Amino acid sequence: MADYPTSFDKDALLSCARGELFGPGNAQLPEPPMLMMDRITDISADGGPHGKGHVVAEFDIHPDLWFFACHFPGNPIMPGCLGLDGLWQLTGFNLGWRGWQGRGYALGVGEVKLTGMVRPDRKMLTYYVDFTKAVQTRRLTMGVADGRVEADGETIYHVKDMKVALSES
């Protein structure tokens, strides 16, 4: 297990996006505007309801975020796929945080339910990623997790069986 902190501010997330946090060729977050969180408030390899690891992160919502202007003009809504991408980003981040090597790739998701929307009047999203499986063998490095997204405390997305792998190729 690598010796990283259990919380990260925006500067640390940007360091990860530049490939500096986990080193070249390893798990890396996207840079803004695709970086879908402002801070990670808690991360573990053995927490969460299944004892397999978890991540909690926050994303501040501002009316001038790039996606509101184009999705949709006159009816601004954050695309649901961006919330899903934020959950995938955090799943991959957790694998890199564990010290596991390779670049992250989303492999799929079993189930997605969107029950609410993110409009410009929302203040904050909170992401919850709870691992159900984390596997590292000679041939496979993968995390499987469930997730949810809350907007100002209201659960608006539920996700089951997200899969993210790390590959050294």
TrEMBL record:
Organism, as annotated: Rhodovulum iodosum
Entry's transmembrane regions: none
InterPro entries: FabA, FabA_FabZ, HotDog_dom_sf
E.C. number(s) listed in UniProt: 4.2.1.59
Pfam families (alphabetical): FabA (PF07977)
Domain of life, per lineage: Bacteria
Localization: Cytoplasm
Subunit note: Homodimer.
Record keyword Lipid biosynthesis present: yes
Identification of the protein by name: 3-hydroxyacyl-[acyl-carrier-protein] dehydratase FabA
Pathway: Lipid metabolism; fatty acid biosynthesis
Catalytic activity: a (3R)-hydroxyacyl-[ACP] = a (2E)-enoyl-[ACP] + H2O
